[in-house]
Structures are given as structure tokens and as C-alpha cells.
Amino acid sequence: MAIIKLASLGAWCRMGRIRVFYGWWVVSASAAIIFLTGGTFYYGFSALVKPLQNEFGWSRALISGAFSLRTQSGGLASPVVGYLVDRVGSRLLLLVGVALVGTGFILLSRVESVWAFYGAVMVIAVGMSATGGPVAMTAAAHWFERQRGRAMALLATGAGSSGIMVLVLATLISAFGWREALLIVGIAQWAVCIPLALLVRHRPEEMGLLPDGEPPLPGPEAGRAAALAKANGVVYGPLRLQDSGLTIAEALRTRTFWLLSLAMALAGFGSTAIIVHQVVYVTEATGLSDEQAAVVAMMMPIVSLAGRVGFGWLADYREKRQVLAASYMLLGLGILLLAAAREPWQLLFFLVVFSPGWGGSIAVQPAFQAEHFGLRAFGALQGLTLTVSTLGSVAGPIFAGWVHDSTDTYRNAFVVLALASLAAAPAILMVGQPRPAVAVAST
After folding, report:
1. What is the mean pLDDT of the chain?
2. Directed axis angle between helix 90-108 and helix 60-88, to 10°?
3. How far is CA 288 from CA 55, 285, 409, 411, in A?
4. Which of 40, 107, 152, 413 shows the greatest Cβ crowding within 10 Å of its Cβ?
5. How far apart are CA 158 and CA 258, in angstroms?
6. 239 phi, psi to nearest 5 deg
7. Contact indicator for 100, 51 with CB cutoff of 8 Å
8. Any residues with CB less than 8 A from the CB of 245 and at least 6 apart, and which?
9. Which of 329, 286, 327, 325 is nearest to 309 (CA)?
10. Greater model confidence, 312 or 160
């Protein structure tokens, strides 16, 4: 019913009967897709560990390896997805991604061997690369300029609120069994997300609109701009900064690209390790039960919504590199607070410091990238930065696990993770001011 209402409202918006800029529908539909496709696997994966172990007798290391495989596969696929979104648009890739994610869950519900299990996870990983990250962010970047930070913040709420999907999947498993639960999830991906993907348009020019809902240019100026846009294959679009910016080769030669990638890798090194290990750490450090620790884990993405919205809004009014650096500082300080926690009540300090910093960095990073590199190769560059940052995201959990195995505690590892995350702040502050863009016609 909610999807039907959203589609109907989108249609009314296209007909001009209500004054809601269609870009907000694009961002909302993309956020909803991320909520369902990403949350079900990223946060819901932990609900599958015990059922798979009970049925097949697989070790937790083997099962957890699938999560690392998803991270690595998604990172490797991101540059390809980013390259494609700059050329074929967000809508087509979202449809392909949703189809793959749904198919992957259905295949996962039928597995009988380790190889089938890992194969299904890879299908889901590739699909998730096309339903979020470079794809949704590229669409949002094209639809908004002045309000880009707020648009990215709204988009990030889809991922932030998706932590609740672990409870949804756990409830389905309890009621129907893990195979039937995954089958239901796969079919739901198709039924809900395909209509949402159909709402998405890659650029406002496709609907005769301008970014941020700006009014069209007046008189002869609008006519000349429309003619120029039509000659370049666009239905309508004025002379503006839509596709100005650096090419992939030009961006790779800048210090900004590598400093941004380094900062993201350092932050991912810390944050991903916390996501993977926090439940078992909380039980060991504070004495909470597995169920209580799971509630703490669920609260982390929910509390992060404050950072996603707040930092995203702030990025429209303050220098983006300063906002991004502040989010990295909170992330690192939060990890230190977690390392120092001895009592359950002390976890509250971790949640209110780490979570907004983590969420804020996710929301501000693409807006920072668009400001410094422009939109000419936004999707491809987003994919490349995600690939580099994946190195940190993969290494962090492995490092934390290795230190625990060697010392029988996570605390020393968490201190290193915190220092790495804190180092991301000066790295991003070393980036200079963005160079003024040169206006070119939309293509």
C-alpha cells in the first residue's frame, strides 16, 4: 500500500498538481531501496549465523567469511557500477540491482553446499553494489546542487534506519524457518523495490526540470539553453554546472582523490571492525547477554540517523571538509569510549558519540566529492573511492579478530582502530578548497 501511495504521489508530482520537487521523490525512492536491499543482508546477516551452523555444522569463521566476501566483491564491483551509471543512468542499474538481490536471496534459500552459499552471497553483493552507493548518490547529486548535503542526508537515512531489518529477518526465521524466510525476503525485494526503481530519473532535465526545483530560465535564454541541451541528447536543460568537473584520469592525478580515499579507508578500518565485533565484545566487556548486546548493535544505526541528517544539513552551510573531519573525530572518540566501557550504562556514551560521527561521514562524503570533482564522472569516482576504502573495511575486522586471538581481549585492537579513525580527520583537512567549476552544457 505504501508503495502504491508513493507511486501515485510521484505521478501527481509529474503532472504538477502538488508542489513537491520531484528530486525528493527520487531520493526517497532510492533511500527506500537501500533500506530493504542493504539492511536485510548487511544487518540481517547475523541472524543467519546460528541457523546455518545448526543445519550444516559449518564453523562461524566459514560463515562469517561470506560477509567479508560480500564486502570485497562489492568493493571490486563499485568502479564498474560507477562507470556504468555515468553512461546508462541510475534507473536501469537500480532495476538490475534489485533483480540480482532478489535472485540472490532466493538462491540463498535453496543452498545445500558451501560453494552454493558463497555463490548466492556474491550475487547479492553485486546486486547491492547497483542498488546503493554510486548509483543512488549519482542520481541525488544530479537532482540537487544547493541542497545536495540535505539530499545526501535523506538518502543516508535509508541505510541508517535499515538496522531494524535484523529484527524483521529474525522474526521471519523464528516463524517460518530460515529457508522460507529468505524466500519471502527475495520475493519482497522484487515486489517492493522494482516499482520504487521505476520512479527514479537520472537527471531533472529528463522531466523538463532544474536542480533544487529552480524555475526555468526566462525568455530567449531558456530557448538557447534548451536547443543546446537537445543537440547534446537531453530533453531539456539550461547551460549550467551539471556535468562540469574532472574526468577520471584528471581526478586520479589530484592529491584530493587520494587523501579522500585514505580518509575513507582509515574510517572504514575502524567502523567496520566495530560493526562486526561489537556484539561479542559487549558481552565480554560488560556482561550483557547476546540478546541485550544485539539491541545495542541495533541502536547504533538508528542513533546514526542524527548524524546523517544533522551533518548532511550542516554541510550545506559550512565548509564540507570541516564537517567531514568533525564526523571522523566523533567516530574515533566513540571507539575509544567503547574500549573503555566496563559497565552497560557506559555504552550509552559510545552510542551518542560514535553513531552520529559514523552516520555523518556517510552522508557528507559524496557531497564533498561532488564539490571537489564535479559531476562529469561522479559515479565512477564514487566507485573508485569505495574500492580503495574497502581495503580498510576488510582489514579492520581481521585485525581486531587477530589481536583478540593473540591477547584474549579486544581493547588493544580498539585503541588502534580509534587512532586510525582519528587520523582520517587531518587527512581530509589537508585537502584544499575546491577549484571553481567551469559551466558546460548538460549531456
Report:
1. 80
2. 160
3. 27, 8, 16, 17
4. 152
5. 28
6. -70, 115
7. no
8. 373, 374, 375, 376, 377, 378, 437
9. 327
10. 312
Strand partners, 245: 374
Confidence of residue 251 (pLDDT cuts 50, 70, 90): confident
N-terminal to C-terminal alpha carbon distance within the chain:
37
Closest to 205 in 3D by CA, of 313, 288, 111, 89: 89
How confident is the model over 39-74, as pLDDT tens digits?
A: 777 777 767 777 887 898 887 667 766 766 666 666
Dihedral of alpha carbons 224, 230, 236, 239, sign? negative
Helices (H), ranges, 177-254: 178-188, 194-199, 219-231, 248-252
Note the pLDDT of residue 73. 62
What is the arithmetic mean of pLDDT over 401-420?
A: 88
The one-letter amino acid code at 373 reads: F
User: pLDDT tens across 421-435, in order?
Assistant: 999 999 999 987 665
The domains found in the chain, sorted by start residue, are 3-7+17-205 (1.20.1250.20), 248-428 (1.20.1250.20)
- Residue from 272, 334, 336 nearest 307 by CA: 334
